[in-house]
Fold 3-dehydroquinate synthase.
Amino acid sequence: MQSINTKNAIVHFNSNVYSELNSYIKAEKPSKIFILVDTNTHDLCLPQFMANLEPGYIQTEVMEMPEGEDHKTIDICMGVWEAMSQYGADRKSLLINLGGGVVTDLGGFVASTYMRGITYINVPTSLLAMVDASVGGKTGVDLGVLKNQVGVISEGAMVLIDVSFLATLPQSQMVSGFAEMLKHGLITDKNYWYTLTHLEDLDISDLDQLIYDSVIIKNDIVTNDPTEKGFRKTLNFGHTLGHAIESYFLEYDEKTTLLHGEAIAIGMILESYISTKVAGLSIESLDEISKGILKTFSKITFNTEDYSHIMKLMKHDKKNSHGIIKFVLLESIGKAKIDCEVPNEIILEAFDYYKSL
C-alpha cells in the first residue's frame, strides 16, 4: 500500500511501517527515544512494536499513562514532561506515541511543547486514531470536560498505521472509529458513504482499503487548509453537538460515558436534521443518513432537561466566533457548508427528531 505524503510528514502502512521507522532512526540518530503508551497499549501493543524495532545504541525509555479520555489532561502532560526531563530528554530526542487518539493527541502536544518542540511519530492503535486523530497535526488536551481546549497544530515526522493492532480492540472501540469514517463520506464523497453503509457487500479484508481511503480524504482536506481557516472546518461536521454531548455525558456521573464516536454519531444525525432547515439538505438524504448511522450505532435516550445543558456546552466549540455558534452542515451527501448560524429552536427540533427515530 503506497505511503501518503502529508504537508510535513508521511503516512506509512502495514508492511512498510517498521522498515521506514528503522530507516528513519538510523538516518536521524535521535539522542534518545521515548515511547508513550497507556495501560492498554503497554500490554497489548508494545511487545509487538518493540519486537520490530531494530536494536541499536540509542537508549529507549517507555512512559505509561492511564487509559481513557478523562486522563487527557494537563496534569498527565506534566507527568510526561517531568519523566522526559528526568531521563535526560533533549531537543534531539524522539517521542513515539503508541496508542489511540488520547495518546496521539496528548503525546503530540507534549512533544510540540517540550523544549519548544521535539520530533514525534504517531503509531495509532485504534481505528479512530488511524483514520482521524493521528493525522493532520492537531494535538492537545481537554480542559475539564471541554474537549481539546488546549493544544497546537504541529505535525509529527510520520504516522505509522499497522492495521494488525486493531485485533487488540474491543468491538465498541471499532464502532467508535467508524463514525469518523462515515463523516468523511458525508462531507466529501457520496460513493464512500454508500460503501460504508453497505458493508454487508464487502469482505473484512476490505478494511485496509477503507482506512486508506479515509486517510486520503482527511489528508486532502488538511493539506489544502492546514490551520483550519476554511474548508478544514468541514471535518468538524457532527462535532459541534457531538462534542457537547460527549462532554455532558462525561460531566455527570449518573450518565453513561459515551465514546467519542458514539457522541459524534448522534451529532451527525442532529446536524443533518438542522441541515434540512438551514443548508438545503433533502428530507430523503436525512432519512438515508439517519438509517445509515443507526445501522451501526444504538440510540441514546435524552431527557428534555438535558438539552439546555448540552446547548450551553456548545458555546465552547472552537469554531465559534464573537460568541456566535458556528455549525458545519450538509447541502447534500458529500457536500458540506461551513460557518452556518442556527437558531436555538431548530437545535431543539433536532433533538425531537432524534427522539422520534
Notes: The chain has 14 helices and eleven strands.
